[in-house]
Task: inverse folding
């Protein structure tokens, strides 16, 4: 039996669990937690079996009910069935499963990290009073994300894409009694919606051009066009940019990144899920999945690269001044996503996916670690922490692993993938991008160690630290597992043995020799990371310099204000909403009341007025009406007899109004 | 043999009598009776045409039977209405039924 044929079950299990947990969760000893752990765990195990099948090349020769799937030589599995038949379309809209190496990677990341987050939640959410709702929604979230990565066409991807948006709304606003949480949920939903509209338009354009939304078919058509030198590059650029618009919203890229830091209002486990496993990866995945469009549109790729680099830089700079532990992590996610986009933009497909995988592990670790700290402290403010290392050694050490992994201080996972991205940017020869990427690496090292030092090192800065305690095992074990993966996952993609790069690749894999350039760049990124670490240690561990001195006046103060105000982007958006959107809304409202309602009311008043006049002409006596009917019939007969033939004569017989000669044969 | 036109003239006369009754008489009972006269004038037409055009095709006569049945039902409903009108108004004058104009 081939497990890959059961791949469709992977998203279905958590999706089916959703209503079960919602309605019967109270019967579960953990109020839904156990069910969620089992459902997501089953999805993970099945994903694992499928991935093993694919890596072993154990694929069915011919698959798919429409017989278009290919196995054997091709390293993917596809199976689909018609969902809605459309006239003039041989295949209609389809639902289907598509499993290739990229899908495998995403399946593993989503299901495994999702599972660990659910396990962690059992401890983290233990004191919440609406657990069934939480577990049901988190199960739905993981289910739709699995569906998103397993879809075989853009439409299905889009449907799951929107469901992911819905789940993020539900979970960010999970504590909806808190006004900030409700506002953050709305913000996340509305801001990503801007991108979704572009994605939807992109779908229409793609369907209009190719006549299909199936990945494989579009790819095949592109190959044919390439062979005939008939590629419509401007068209492909438009499609790519529209798809990228969707990715910008979902993956929180500049200028639509503003929702992600606010999304911290949800439970920390939800943040971990959004940042590591589900939501934000969807955008990067979309670009990677649609890479067969992007590769023919160099202009679009350049836009991707620039947006990625700008996002990485701006987000890292904003992370420098945050005092909320989760917000620092949020900006770091935005920044790392920028790295992934940048890598995609300069052709580093494998590097981007490699970073996605590593980031998923260490970011899940960091968020769950932060959750553990918040669980112990009941506050997010790093200024009230300090010295926590002695209270929660396990959390502290696993967090340190995550910090080293993300900054690339040592040979942990983030080091390898970030290094590879920087190498690709360097080889693209675009100097501004390279400078932005390296500057981001420097800032990343600084703010991540700032976070760690402020939280765990030094002396306690508030009384709560004294009451802090290590988290229970159900929370600690996922941390240890994730820390292990954060250390290990980088090793499958080192320059020495690039197994990852030959597994996840786009087109032919050019064997990259580890040459002097690569070595020098590795040295550079190491040096940059250590400089960032050193500065952070200087300011926040040794305390030999007070950062406040540098931002109290002059240019330092101006920059600090600019960063704490998030480059005034939120102000800009609020201003736009207030001045332009609200004004337009008022205009529409006035139009509605004055013109549309006015017309309807005038019509109604007119009818009432006319009726009140005409009623005087009537008697209410039935016999009078009967006379009217009789007279009417007589006039109709006379009309048919005389007026219509006369009209026919006048018009030369054309309308034929008198064709019914009712009087004929009566001798009239 | 009686010509077809004789039946038609009879039918037309009956129809006019019925119409006159409906339009002029004040008693609701008479109005109902007049309506039945009009219906029966139509029945005469049916039967006459049926007998003269195709003697072996009885559809016109069947149609007349159908009309008679319908007329019976109509009278039943009409009388029921009149009964209620009588209870409310105390009289049977159609000119008192002016509720069409509010």
Result:
């Amino acid at each position: 039996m081939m497990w890959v044929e059961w791949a469709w079950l992977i998203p279905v299990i958590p999706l089916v669990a959703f209503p079960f947990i919602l309605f019967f969760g109270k019967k579960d000893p953990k109020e839904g937690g156990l069910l969620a752990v089992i459902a997501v765990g089953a999805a993970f195990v099945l994903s694992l079996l499928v991935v093993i099948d694919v890596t072993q090349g154990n694929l069915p020769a011919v698959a798919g009910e429409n017989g278009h799937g290919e196995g054997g030589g091709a390293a993917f599995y596809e199976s689909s069935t018609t969902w809605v038949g459309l006239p003039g379309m041989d295949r209609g809209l389809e639902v289907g499963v598509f499993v290739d190496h990229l899908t495998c990677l995403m399946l593993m990341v989503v299901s495994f990290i999702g599972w660990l987050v659910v396990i962690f939640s059992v401890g983290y959410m233990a004191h919440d009073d609406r657990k069934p709702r939480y577990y049901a929604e988190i199960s739905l979230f993981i289910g739709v994300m699995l569906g998103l990565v397993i879809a075989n066409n853009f439409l299905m991807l889009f449907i799951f894409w929107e469901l992911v948006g819905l789940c993020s709304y539900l979970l960010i606003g999970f504590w909806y009694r808190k006004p900030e949480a409700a506002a953050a949920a709305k913000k996340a939903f509305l801001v990503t919606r801007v991108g979704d509209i572009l994605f939807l338009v992109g779908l229409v354009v793609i369907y209009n051009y190719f006549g299909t939304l199936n990945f494989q078919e579009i790819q095949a058509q592109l190959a044919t066009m390439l062979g005939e030198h008939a590629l419509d590059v401007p068209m492909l650029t438009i499609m790519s940019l529209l798809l990228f618009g969707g990715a910008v919203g979902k993956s929180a890229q500049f200028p639509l990144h503003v929702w992600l830091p606010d999304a911290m209002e949800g439970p920390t486990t939800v943040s971990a899920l959004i940042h590591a496993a589900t939501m934000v990866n969807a955008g990067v995945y979309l670009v990677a999945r649609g890479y067969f469009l992007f590769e023919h549109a160099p202009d679009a790729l350049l836009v991707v690269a620039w947006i990625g680099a700008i996002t990485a830089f701006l987000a890292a700079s904003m992370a420098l001044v945050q005092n909320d532990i989760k917000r620092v992590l949020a900006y770091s996610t935005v920044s790392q996503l920028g790295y992934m986009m940048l890598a995609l933009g300069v052709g580093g497909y494998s590097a981007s996916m490699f970073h996605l995988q590593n980031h998923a592990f260490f970011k899940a670790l960091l968020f769950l670690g932060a959750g553990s700290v918040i669980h112990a402290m009941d506050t997010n403010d790093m200024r009230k922490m300090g010295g926590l290392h002695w209270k929660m050694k396990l959390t502290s050490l696993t967090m340190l692993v995550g910090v080293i992994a993300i900054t690339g201080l040592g040979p942990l996972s983030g080091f390898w993938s970030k290094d590879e991205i920087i190498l690709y940017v360097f080889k693209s020869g675009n100097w501004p991008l390279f400078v932005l990427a390296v500057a981001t690496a420097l800032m990343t090292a600084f703010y991540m160690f700032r976070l760690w030092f402020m939280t765990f090192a030094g002396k306690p800065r508030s009384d709560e630290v004294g009451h802090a305690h290590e988290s229970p095992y159900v929370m600690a074990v996922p941390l240890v597992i994730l820390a292990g993966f954060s250390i290990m996952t980088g090793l499958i993609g080192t320059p020495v043995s690039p197994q990852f790069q030959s597994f996840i690749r786009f087109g032919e894999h050019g064997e990259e020799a580890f040459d002097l350039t690569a070595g020098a760049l590795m040295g550079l990124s190491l040096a940059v990371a250590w400089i960032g670490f050193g500065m952070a240690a200087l300011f926040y561990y040794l305390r030999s310099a007070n950062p406040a001195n540098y931002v109290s006046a002059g240019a330092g103060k101006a920059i600090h204000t600019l960063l704490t105000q998030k480059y005034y982007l939120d102000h800009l958006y609020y201003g736009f909403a207030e001045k332009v959107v609200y004004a337009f809304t008022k205009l529409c409202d006035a139009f509605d009341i004055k013109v549309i309602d006015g017309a309807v009311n005038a019509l109604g008043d007119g009818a009432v007025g006319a009726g009140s006049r005409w009623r005087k002409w009537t008697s209410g006596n039935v016999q009078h009406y009967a006379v009217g009917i009789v007279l009417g019939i007589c006039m109709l007969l006379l009309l048919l007899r005389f007026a219509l033939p006369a009209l026919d004569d006048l018009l030369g017989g054309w309308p034929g109004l008198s064709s019914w000669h009712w009087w004929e044969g009566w001798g009239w | 043999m009686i010509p077809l036109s004789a039946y038609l003239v009879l039918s037309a006369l009956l129809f006019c009598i019925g119409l006159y009754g409906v339009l002029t008489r004040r008693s609701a009972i008479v109005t109902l009776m007049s309506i039945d006269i009009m219906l029966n004038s139509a029945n005469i037409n049916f039967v006459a045409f049926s007998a003269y055009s195709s003697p072996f095709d009885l559809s016109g006569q069947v149609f007349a039977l159908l009309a008679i049945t319908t007329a019976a039902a109509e009278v039943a409903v009409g009388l029921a209405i009149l009964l209620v009108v009588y209870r409310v108004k105390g009289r049977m004058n159609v000119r008192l039924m002016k509720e069409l104009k509010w």
The two ends of chain B are 56 Å apart (CA to CA). The interface with chain A takes residues 19, 22-24, 94-95, 97-102 of chain B (CB under 8 Å). Helices of chain B lie at 4-24, 28-53, 59-89. Chain B has three helices and no strands.
